[in-house]
Amino acid sequence: VLVNSGSRHEAKYLSGISHFLEKLAFSSTARFVSKDEILLTLEKHGGICDCQASRDTIMYAVSADAKGLDTVVNLLADVVLQPRLSDEEIEMTRMAIRFELEDLNMRPDPEPLLTEMIHAAAYRENTVGLNRFCPVENTDKIDREVLHSYLRNYYTPDRMVLAGVGIEHEQLVECAKKYLLGVEPAWGSGKTKDVDRSVAQYTGGIVKVEKDMSDVSLGPTPIPELTHIMIGLESCSFLEEDFIPFAVLNMMMGGGGSFSAGGPGKGMFTRLYLNVLNRHHWMYNATSYHHSYEDTGLLCIHASADPKQVREMVEIITREFILMAGAVGEVELERAKTQLKSMLMMNLESRPVIFEDVGRQVLATNTRKLPHELCTLISDVKSTDIKRVVTKMLRNKPAVAALGDLTDLPTYEHIQAALSSKDGRLPRMYRLFR
């Protein structure tokens, strides 16, 4: 079951509700006394369960033997609509979340933290810019009443999709009618009054966290102290036609870590490998990411290097953004398109991915584009499309996230100036001596 609900809908609520709901999933319900009972029921059908909350979707998933379809749908309906949310479970969730937040700040891999920061910078205090993790100060404020008032607004039939893979459509429809239709949820079926329909407002901006990164190592060989920078620009939503050219562009930029071994299969031909990691041995990472939502998107590059080389690193990245609008080689474009198609096809070999793909597409658009349709769209992308979407993207203000020792970080204004210049260079700094 996928629900159109997530941290982006928490503007009128305490931040962190989705994080709580994710952790509370598959706990006791009206029919099941405890989580153990749910797991035992699933075990009879060789089943496993999982819940994942993102910025715009909460997904309750079960994989089990197809013969157990009836039991599974019944269980899912119970988990989603009839959770007991006992005081003990909520207390346990508070502890789990506090532990997760501590862990997040101690991890050597700053990726999750940077992703939060870049979203906060790009969409300041609105929709997808709202924090996905529950802030520490809210852990004690969220209780059953708060959760129920949120669930009453967002867990409504028009915001849910029941998706299934490996079963006949008619069977699934029958089960849905039997267990999901007309069920009175645990929070009652009052009128929804506070559904947040606001559209993402891209603001651009910078979020900086000064942090000593010299002691993140876990083992005897120390990880070098690094400063991490992420620079992003608004792309487009996954409902727009430009989404496919942006996906190809992201593939073309590629990148990864500096100690990634292996041949061409590792994306060694992507621009961030060829132009950045191969030429600047001191760069530890340069990777392109594309986040897309139903009303906006964000294309960003994450780079990391020694704190003393931050200024040079930022300039290299801003230059790469400017070069995106330049000439795109025929071979390079074909390679990126082929890579994107093969990645799509390889991912769709796995059933959980098909399930998520079906569910998310239907939730957002009420239909599903089939893989061959997507492949045709990818094949149709021309170098002029790439140039067009990049030129449009570069008109926006950048979003910047910076983590670590930021002594040499250029100012936001300088980064913005570099991105609107012809060559992507930072304005030169002249020191005046008396």
From TrEMBL:
Subcellular location: Mitochondrion inner membrane; Mitochondrion matrix
Peptidase M16 N-terminal domain segment(s): 1-135
Pfam short name (any one): Peptidase_M16
Keyword presence, Transit peptide: yes
Family statement drawn from the similarity comment of this UniProt entry: Belongs to the peptidase M16 family.
Role description: Substrate recognition and binding subunit of the essential mitochondrial processing protease (MPP), which cleaves the mitochondrial sequence off newly imported precursors proteins.
Name of the featured protein: Mitochondrial-processing peptidase subunit alpha
Record-level GO BP terms: protein processing involved in protein targeting to mitochondrion
UniProt keyword list: Membrane, Mitochondrion, Mitochondrion inner membrane, Transit peptide
Gene3D superfamilies cross-referenced by the UniProt entry: Metalloenzyme, LuxS/M16 peptidase-like (3.30.830.10)
One CC-aspect GO term: mitochondrial matrix
Keyword Iron: no
Domain Peptidase M16 C-terminal: 141-340
Subunit (UniProt): Heterodimer of PMPCA (alpha) and PMPCB (beta) subunits, forming the mitochondrial processing protease (MPP) in which PMPCA is involved in substrate recognition and binding and PMPCB is the catalytic subunit.
Transmembrane parts of this sequence: none
Gene Ontology molecular function terms on file: metal ion binding; metalloendopeptidase activity
